[in-house]
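Write out the 3D structure for:
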Amino acid sequence: MRDSNRKAAELHDLAAHAHRVAAEHYEKQDHLTGHEHSRQALEHSRKAHQMSSQAHEKTIAKHPANAPAEDATK
């Protein structure tokens, strides 16, 4: 479980870095490179979100008492 959370955190960090790099390229009028970094940032963000969601679902499955009220009734 901790490994999933660690991987998700790393992907969030990669996405944030890619967003910063893209912004720097846009400021320099290097739009093609900026666009590529933005695309990479979006992909990292999607993967991070997916891993975070999977880790959350695993946690709920293992510890249903920790689930939000609407999940606990399912």
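The mean pLDDT is 77.
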